[in-house]
Fold this sequence. Notes:
With 382 residues, the chain is of the alpha/beta class.
Amino acid sequence: xxxxxxxxxxxxxxxxxxxxxxxxxxxxxxxxxxxxxxxxxxxxxxxxxxxxxxxxxxxxxxxxxxxxxxxxxxxxxxxxxxxxxxxxxxxxxxxxxxxxxxxxxxxxxxxxxxxxxxxxxxxxxxxxxxxxxxxxxxxxxxxxxxxxxxxxxxxxxxxxxxxxxxxxxxxxxxxxxxxxxxxxxxxxxxxxxxxxxxxxxxxxxxxxxxxxxxxxxxxxxxxxxxxxxxxxxxxxxxxxxxxxxxxxxxxxxxxxxxxxxxxxxxxxxxxxxxxxxxxxxxxxxxxxxxxxxxxxxxxxxxxxxxxxxxxxxxxxxxxxxxxxxxxxxxxxxxxxxxxxxxxxxxxxxxxxxxxxxxxxxxxxxxxxxxxxxxxxxxxxxx
Length: 382
């Protein structure tokens, strides 16, 4: 079985697995304890924070460790909403955001906040002009993802951040960076982002570990009450082994980003070109994120093509991994103007740095074979 679902999760680096096991075995102290075991664990935690901060171009004190991107996104959105609600209760985001942003905003809307979900064009983009036009006197937060987890569309964060901060400097800007880091350059300062979310398992680190960059001076209402860990933003004993493993994955993914991007871009272009030649398929992704090709088979349920490819030895995805078990058309594709048939037949292929040219050759062959099998079956039914 060949794995082509790296946008959902990634196999950890061997170095990360080894490091996590070693830390679990040797450094099991609570980093808040004052004895030697605790101090040793705290040193590892501090070093991990420094490594992540260096890779992201921020200060170590701006790194808040979490359990992953869902918690990071919820902490950013709800933490800002609850902390700054005296200033206003209006939030701006985009209709194609990840469920951990989209649903967090919908939840806030149920308790008295107002949320503007900006529409996207047929390519899945939102403009700086749209964002600024949606800002009101009571707007406190704008949340926009870097790379769409389903289609790979990249939002113009430099333009959005520059326009937002020039016209509305008091409005905070959050970026969900989960699908971008390790695949594309990240420029948190250049984007003028106040908050930035990351998840370890998307970049060959462990599941259950993530971080939120919180710009110095920004306050958040903590979602977890308890101890004073993570500057009081996130109570609870830190998972030192996973966070050390994450810092190693962040460092390695950052160091290899340029090389990995070059390889994955070539594979993306090859697969996308093949999709365009198959009449039954419609390409939904573009030449933006190097690791994602997304297409629809209108009139064919996505899971049928998925399982046909699986029988041929290839694991791909339908919607976001967080939504793939829902028997509904893709919210992302519908927002891009696709019809129900197209939105119900979406397939995402996502690459990793471990793939080879031979893997791509075999994937293309399998895709053509799968479509031919299904087309033949459809003709027989008719």
